[in-house]
């Protein structure tokens, strides 16, 4: 079995790039673009969006959300990224979705969970698997994590195909795992460990 990765220095903010794809932190001046994207995709995302059964604890503004997300990045408890795409050589990458690594646990677990969403207009373009591979490699190499987990509703067939193509193992069903679209929902649990991808997940995905 390959030895565990030696953690490198992690300092937030962190951006990752591959080709035209960029993972970068949220910024306050992204509000108009992000809000517009979410509004256009409201119906597309409703079935998969997490909802809060405790409304009193919900974040009340975009600015508050950005503050909380970037604080979690600095503390190393989460990695909240926007999925962005360069549409021209000189253009500023446009926001196409979101990818968040959360529940980062160190010690004997060295694990984290990963979730994402993408603009309906850009679905099926290979952005999500590439973003997942980039983020997973960062967690395995820079953070020195051992295990990455992704939980997906059984009905979300396109999302399940993404992780299956990347080689995540199906480990079973988590009953009433997350509050989604107003109710507690079952999720399929998928996982991958660092020794399973010694060459790196992105390299394996790009080599397919």
Automatic annotation (TrEMBL):
Keywords: Acyltransferase, Transferase
Residue stretches making up the N-acetyltransferase domain: 21-195
InterPro entries linked: Acyl_CoA_acyltransferase (IPR016181), GNAT_dom (IPR000182), N-acetyltransferase (IPR051531)
Pfam families from the UniProt entry: Acetyltransf_3
EC identifiers of the protein: 2.3.-.-
Matches recorded under SUPFAM superfamilies: Acyl-CoA N-acyltransferases (Nat)
Record-linked PROSITE patterns: GNAT (PS51186)
Protein name: GNAT family N-acetyltransferase
Biological source species: Citricoccus parietis
């Amino acid at each position: 079995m390959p030895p565990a990765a030696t953690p490198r220095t992690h300092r937030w903010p962190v951006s990752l790039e591959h080709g035209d794809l960029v993972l970068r932190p949220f910024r306050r001046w992204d509000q108009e673009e992000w809000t517009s994207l979410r509004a256009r995709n409201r119906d597309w995302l409703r079935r998969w969006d997490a909802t809060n059964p405790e409304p009193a604890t919900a974040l009340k503004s975009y600015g508050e959300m950005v503050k909380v997300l970037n604080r979690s990045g600095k503390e190393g408890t989460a990695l909240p990224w926007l999925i962005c795409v360069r549409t021209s050589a000189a253009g500023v990458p446009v926001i196409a979705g979101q990818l968040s690594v959360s529940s980062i646990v160190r010690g004997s677990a060295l694990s984290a969970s990963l979730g994402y969403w993408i603009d309906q207009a850009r679905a099926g373009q290979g952005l999500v698997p590439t973003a997942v591979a980039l983020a997973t490699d960062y967690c395995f190499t820079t953070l020195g994590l051992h295990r990455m987990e992704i939980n997906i509703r059984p009905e979300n067939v396109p999302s399940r195909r993404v992780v299956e193509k990347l080689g995540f193992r199906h480990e079973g069903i988590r009953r009433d795992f997350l509050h989604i679209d107003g109710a507690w929902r079952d999720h399929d649990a998928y996982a991958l460990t660092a020794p399973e991808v010694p060459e790196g997940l992105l390299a394996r995905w790009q080599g397919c």
